[in-house]
Amino acid sequence: MSYTKRNDGRKFEETRPIEAKAGVIKNADGSGFFKIGKTSAYAAVYGPKELFPRSQHNPRKGLLRCNYNMMPFSGSGDRVRPGPNRRSKEISLVTQKALLPVVNLEGFPNAVIEVFIELPQTDAGSRCAGICAASIALADAGITMKDMVASVSCGKVGDKVLIDLDYSEESHEDGAVDIPVAMIPSTEEITLLQLDGFITKDELKKAIQMVKPVLKNIAEIQRKALKEKYK
Amino acid sequence: MNKDFKNHIVKALSKNVRLDGRKNDEFRKITIEKNVTCNAEGSAKVTCGDSEVIVGVKMAMGTPYPDKPDEGVLMTGAELHQMSNPDFEGGPPSIVAIEIARVIDRGIRESGTIDTKKLCIKEGEEVWMVCLDISPINMDGNLMDLGALAGIIALKEAKFPEMKDGKPDYKTLSKNPLPISKTPIEVTVSKIGDSFLVDLTYEEEKFVDARLTVAVLKDDTICAMQKGGDSPLTEDEIFKMVELAIKKSKELRKLI
Amino acid sequence: MGKLLVKDKEIVVPGDVIAEGMDFLPSFGTYRTGEKIIANRTSLLSIDGKVIKTIPLAGRYLPKRNDVIIGRVFDILMSGWRMDINSAYSAVLMLQEASFKYIQKGADLTKFFAIDDYVVVKITNVTSQRLVDVTVKGPGLRRLEAGRIVKVSTHKVPRIIGKQGSMVSTIKDATGCRITVGQNGVVWVQGEPEQEVLAVNAIKKIDENSHHSGLTDEIKKFLDSNKVKTKGDKK
Q1: How close A177 comes to chain C (CA, Å)?
Q2: C7-56 and C148-225 share one CATH topology?
Q3: Do residues A214 and A161 make contact, with C-beta atoms less than 8 angstroms apart?
């Protein structure tokens, strides 16, 4: 079983076309838009602001709260029922953990920085797109952060290790492995890592090696988007 | 509400000057984008000033209601995403979101815009369910009118999915549009002090005494209404508002 | 030798390497890791000799002692008022800081400041846990009369005020409006309706374009070309 040519003709280490913007939501303190192929994500940051409920107050530092949500018409197939579900709650959690290492929350005891991610359309890789948009939004909101966080999936389709699986590849008949990864580009530290499918240790190594330069490139696209706002 | 500040604005409105310099009966600049999201069977984005809303149509097969066994179903939902406005709260849909969805739903349903009988696949067993969902990106007021506008455009754009082995194949849309015969346009007229306004910003909405949403068809027939706000309205005021709504509906209709 | 990788007055964003080598000193908005100085905030670079400084472009207001700000009363306490100061933290105006007159215990506090009143206050203290005390005893501190409230970025306040208040004076002169700018980014404007709109639009324009060079001329031109015709003016 050999996956010799990708469904959409991309190279194996190539992402789908990327589009990034900052400052797309006027009401927000900071906002970002990130589109990769047919998957697009908006993110808005509000805060630091007063935190409710008070039971979550931390007198030592602020809280970063993330909220991932698919719009009802965003998925292929059935309508997504509005409101949180187990999947969206888990993704909200890993998104928070992906962003937390770069964000400085020291100056905001008892307060919260809220990140809201909304997806109008999805075609695999939505959590990664959400993290990319959120990272732009946090920087746009003037939050102190030591670097951006870039995210994309890597994985395996058939026998080929590759980058940025789309939906048709994720559901490939020869089997697929999806590995969403987020990284702090300057230190190459990994802040998000999930995997489903079967893969050997060596292949995983190869996938991670392959995704690193791609993530550095994505971080450049994120930074460019932020600067574009002030042009 | 600070009374002095409100009186200050009421005074400006009586001189026909709004917070952003518009006239009382003036809409912000509206732009419309069609088919903005690829997984919906139909969609539209309406931008009006700083307000931006996406509406998507999803179609699914389901069982009809027992009292209408030969009719398809329209379901309208609105979510006030916390992303779109700092004052929106999480949790189950707020009463504000429910009212918006229901008023938009009424404008489309009661006008008979969709011929629901044509959505019947097998009487009593299977019909098409049309789900219309309103998702604000940035909410700076007038979600009711803008959601309704984007909604009717999305419905008109929507195409049935192709059928494959008796099941819808969402990846390929057919060329068949929804059975739509009318175009209801909703216009909300709000009263602040003695002035009547349309297309309020979020800042202005905080000062509203009463509002009246009117859904209007092409021949100026009214097909749905909703009075809102805490203050009552006189008959005279109601007809002034209805007249303004009909006048503005003609302008909005031209945009579609 | 140290090397500067970004030009002065350029926009930097988190993760941008600004300089290499040990010749430069990081300050607010930047940090050093090994040989590199990296930006950790979206800001405008301002190089001062060997010191790498930044001017933030976004971010919420953080209360600072002696700042004069505009607060909104949202709660009336036993012996004071709680105010929203456009920040993650609210401020408390204690009874003894509210008036030079003696206020009797149990007095109706709404007679001094009611809910939703806007008040110009000065911050007297901020604790490590960001509890904020304010006063209205001092020049210019007062309850604001009816007008309009506009919110701008706290970091743009210096540009809105201008050098020695030049920018805000320009707007006042052109529109005849009374304007008070709080350090927390809350601005109060009062004047004739159309003039108010012009003043507010000018303030919003500064907020959006604060990083432009030649901003003063840009605003003067804007005010001039949008001038509201009053009865006294000749055609």
Answers
A1: 31
A2: no
A3: no
**Chain A residues close to C211, C-beta within 8 Å:** 230
Q: Is B7 on the interface with C (CB under 8 A)?
A: yes
In chain B, which residue's Cα lies nearest the Cα of A30?
B83
Residues in chain A with CB shorter than 8 Å from the CB of B82 are: 44, 46, 67, 114, 116
Of C118, C146, C197, the CB nearest to B7: C146
How far is B243 from chain C, CA to nearest CA, in Å?
27
- Topology (CATH) of B22-255: Ribosomal Protein S5; domain 2 (3.30.230)
ipTM score here? Answer: 0.95
Domain A18-228: which topology?
Ribosomal Protein S5; domain 2 (3.30.230)
Superfamily for domain range C68-143: Nucleic acid-binding proteins (2.40.50.140)
Show pLDDT as tens, one digit a residue, over chain B (256 residues). 789 999 999 999 999 999 999 999 999 999 999 999 999 999 999 999 999 999 999 999 999 999 999 999 999 999 999 999 999 999 889 999 999 999 999 999 989 999 999 999 999 999 999 999 999 999 999 999 999 999 999 999 999 999 988 888 888 899 999 999 999 999 999 999 999 999 999 999 999 999 999 999 999 999 999 999 999 999 999 999 999 999 999 999 999 9
Domain boundaries along the sequence of chain B: 22-255
Contact at 8 Å (CB) between C9 and C215? no
* CA distance readout (Å), B98 to A51, A74, B5, B80: 26, 21, 30, 10
CATH class of the region C148-225: alpha beta
Question: Does the distance separating the beta carbons of A144 and C130 come in below 8 Å?
Answer: no
d(CA C8, CA C45): 6
Q: Which residues contact A165 (CB under 8 A, 6 or more apart)?
A: A124, A125, A153, A155, A157, A176, A178
